[in-house]
Amino acid sequence: MISSIISRLVILVFGTLYPAYASYKAVRTKNLKEYVKWMMYWIVFALFTCTETFTDMFLSWFPFYYEVKIVLVLWLLSPATKGSSILYRKFVHPALCRREQEIDEYIAKAKDQGYHTVLNLGTKGVNYATTVIMQTAIKKLADAP
């Protein structure tokens, strides 16, 4: 329990808040090298966060699980190890390049379906509201003396 809380705190501070501020500084100073470094970090960290969601459910019972997560985040962040840069260049970038077109098509399809779903729900909502208002008005007129 304590390991879980400490892990959450370390990941929040060192895995999210510090990199967010460092990214802000890179953008503010227009330092391209730092900007690229932090973009690679955020991409790897996003994948870590997605993976962590599932591993927390299935592997949290494993001894030193939370300590390993802390070490991993510090490794990703460390300028000495350049962990996020290594993972990005060796695994993430090649995988994304291979599937880029497929991912783009999926995102476009999801956006299109999402737009149509919202439009349909909005239309149904307006129709329902109109029906309710009309029924209420008719009932009020019928009840009037």
From TrEMBL:
Statement: the UniProt record of this protein carries the keyword Membrane: yes
Gene Ontology biological process: endoplasmic reticulum tubular network organization
Keywords: Membrane, Transmembrane, Transmembrane helix
Name of the protein in question: Receptor expression-enhancing protein
Species of origin: Leptidea sinapis
Family (UniProt): Belongs to the DP1 family.
Main location: membrane
Short name of any one Pfam family annotated for the protein: TB2_DP1_HVA22
Membrane topology: Multi-pass membrane protein
InterPro entries listed in its UniProt record: TB2_DP1_HVA22 (IPR004345)
Keyword Membrane carried by entry: yes
Location of this chain's protein in the cell: Membrane
